[in-house]
Design a protein that fits this description.
heterodimer, A: 114 residues, seven-stranded mixed sheet, four-stranded antiparallel sheet, B: mainly beta, six-stranded mixed sheet
């Protein structure tokens, strides 16, 4: 079984609709992240969470919100979807030691907003 | 400002030829560095990482990368590419701190000529 799972894998929605993307992990990591990927722009950080009670905005948080329901679950919501939120969305977790941090990615959710 | 630059958007090499993908970074603190690969329709898979020690690091699938502090570079190399190496490659840089974030480059797409 995959360590980081995302649901749904693909979604088509209409402008103005609310949509939630879910992420679950079995790695036991405290840190979780949401990124979006657009062609030619690489990955950009939307939100990140260092534990259940810690939520932080990334570089492109406008139009998004998140919920850390448990250590293993980190959901991303688009309250009112717009076409320029069409992208590939990745969830990631981090393994952290005193000297290292390594991220592990889910398979991605491809979102199309019409 | 912290940044990661992958100067080559798209590279095509012949199967069996050697490969070098470039990555340059600008980071105030002592960095740690990653290379990820993304196959079509897939998530990101960690190829290798550098945190400290030997500046030449070995990764999976026959890849290696060399950290050159004087050049602020972390180029990825493979002596002989295979058709299955066709994918998009991302360089990323981070620095451990209480507000740790990992920054990604915009990616280099690798095509393999038969």
């Amino acid at each position: 079984d995959a360590d980081v799972t995302q649901t749904p894998r693909n979604r088509i929605t209409k402008t103005g609709k609310r949509i939630m993307l879910e992420c679950s992990q079995t790695k036991g990591h405290d840190r979780m992240y949401w990124y979006r990927q657009d062609p030619g722009l690489g990955l950009r950080l939307i939100y990140y969470s260092f534990d259940v009670k810690d939520i932080n905005k990334g570089e492109i948080s406008d139009g998004y919100s998140v919920s850390r329901q448990a250590q293993a679950k980190f959901s991303l919501s688009l309250e009112s979807a717009i076409p320029n939120q069409t992208a590939l969305y990745f969830c990631a977790t981090s393994e952290v030691t005193e000297t290292q941090e390594t991220q592990y990615f889910g398979p991605g959710t491809r979102l199309l907003v019409l | 400002a912290q940044s990661v630059t992958q100067p080559d958007i798209h590279i095509t090499v012949s199967e069996g030829a050697s490969l070098e993908l470039r990555c340059n970074y600008s980071y105030g603190a002592t960095p740690y560095l990653f290379w990820y690969v993304q196959s079509p329709g897939q998530g990101l898979q960690l190829l290798l990482k550098y945190f400290s020690g030997d500046t030449l690091v070995q990764g999976i699938k026959g890849f290696e990368a060399e950290f050159k502090r004087s050049q602020s570079s972390f180029n990825l190399r493979k002596p002989s590419v295979h058709w299955s190496d066709a994918a998009e490659y991302f360089c990323a840089v981070g620095s451990y701190s209480s507000a740790s974030k990992i920054i990604f480059g915009s990616g280099t797409r690798l095509s393999i000529r038969p």
